[in-house]
Amino acid sequence: MSYHAPMKTTASHRAAALPVWSLSLGCPKNRVDSERLLGSLGLPVKSVAHMGRARLVFINTCGFIAPAVQESVRAVLDAVQHLSRCRRKPLLAVAGCLVGRYGAEELARELPEVDLWLPTADLSSWPTMLAQALGLPSATDLPNAPVWGRLLSTGPSYAWLKVGEGCRHNCAFCTIPSIRGRLRSEPVAALTAEARTLLAQGVRELALVAQDVSSWGHDLVDKPSLLSLLDSLMGLEGLTWLRLLYLYPSGVTPDLLRFIRDAGAPLLPYLDIPLQHAHPEVLGRMGRPFADDPRKVVDRVRDILPQAALRTSLIVGYPGESEAQFETLCRFVEESRFHHLGVFAYQAEEGTRAAALPDQIPDDVKEERRNTLMELQADISESLLACEVGQHLPVLVDSVHGEWPGLHVGRVWFQAPEVDGITYVSGPGIAPGALVECDIVENTDYDLTALA
């Protein structure tokens, strides 16, 4: 169920809520697109649990890699099948990277049951396109209509703040530039205004996301730095935690690290730096510009910001990856001791340079290598979390546990929402959205248990 803070309206602006069933697949950037869209239709939106009770069924798809494409297609087919049994059929709208990758015309031929396709290239036009399909006046045609803001789907504790669209890099394995286009940064004034709106709804944490947050501002006329954006956001009333995700390694500069070190709260010393591999030859074939030695990035962080929590993502089974190169990657993980690690078996995606490379690795070898790395990381994570037992830390409460009465799910500062482990918390004064001082009493490989 989506969370939506009630907005004050005058009698002339009261409008019946639009019943919507929605699903966002893939990354948090997609979720932001969905929340912005559903909050910009010129009238309030009411989330419903069943498609048959909706006037709009909205699916925001992912098309980054083949498994995501398959998941998106299944979701659309499931919706088509379910809606075929409905007495009154709602509008079925499908948006996102699947549409951006394959095109609305081709998908419409394959899935004529979908009423409206929303391509990523037309992201700014989605509200108008959807309003027209629903027979509603566009919000742009209603200058006196109330501003409903984003329809938050993350609960009261955190929200994603997407600072840019597209990517200015050209990695050999990645489909994003062809789907989402080149880098387009959001201006600082627009981001600050959106952040204020989110905080006014009671959100405590803002997590900055983009394909590469460290590239923010490079395409804007005055070339502002990421530091200027952070400076504008840190002083906003109600902000408890400010978190950075998806930092390109070359963008993790000494200036950025010193800024985080000296700024203190609410800016967290948490860095998500997708390194992808550790061997220079593999990185070179990936088209990563720092191919000489990714250890330099880790060492730079540890030298300037030793208290930082580090997350990274790695790809195993990239074309031509030898056993020796994979062993280099394993040693790198053992030595670096990342707080959080995501490991992906390489997918040969149509249209990428990497798909045409020789020496493609068999799927069973890729999966074996992925499992090996995850076993290494489980031991590292368990060891790091064991050091937190006995500590007194604030826990940001996200939600009520779905199965155990009195138990809540939250996070400590080094756990990012949705991608890292969680902290189970119980005790008095706990509710979603609360920041509670707790004693850490237990750990598993990836999670913590705390008592207030």
Keywords:
single chain, 452 residues, pyruvate-formate lyase- activating enzyme, alpha/beta, Rossmann fold, OB fold (Dihydrolipoamide Acetyltransferase, E2P), disordered N terminus, six-stranded parallel beta sheet, 3 domains, five-stranded parallel beta sheet
Walk me through this protein's architecture:
Helix 7 runs parallel beside helix 8 (226-234) and helix 12 (323-336) runs parallel beside helix 13. The model is unreliable at 1-14 and 142-147 (pLDDT under 50). This protein folds into three domains: 11-141, Rossmann fold (3-Layer(aba) Sandwich); 158-386, tm_1862 like domain (pyruvate-formate lyase- activating enzyme); 392-451, Beta Barrel (OB fold (Dihydrolipoamide Acetyltransferase, E2P)), CATH 2.40.50. It is globular. Strand 1, helix 1 (28-38) and strand 2 form a beta-alpha-beta unit. It is an alpha/beta fold and 452 residues long. It has helices at residues 28-38, 66-83, 97-102, 104-110, 126-134, 176-180, 188-200, 226-234, 254-263, 280-286, 295-304, 323-336, 363-386, and strands at 18-24, 45-47, 56-61, 91-96, 116-119, 158-162, 164-165, 184-185, 205-209, 241-244, 267-272, 309-316, 340-345, 392-400, 408-411, 423-426, 435-443, 448-451.
Summarize the entry for a quick read.
With 452 residues, the protein is an alpha/beta fold. 32% of the residues lie in helices and 21% in strands.
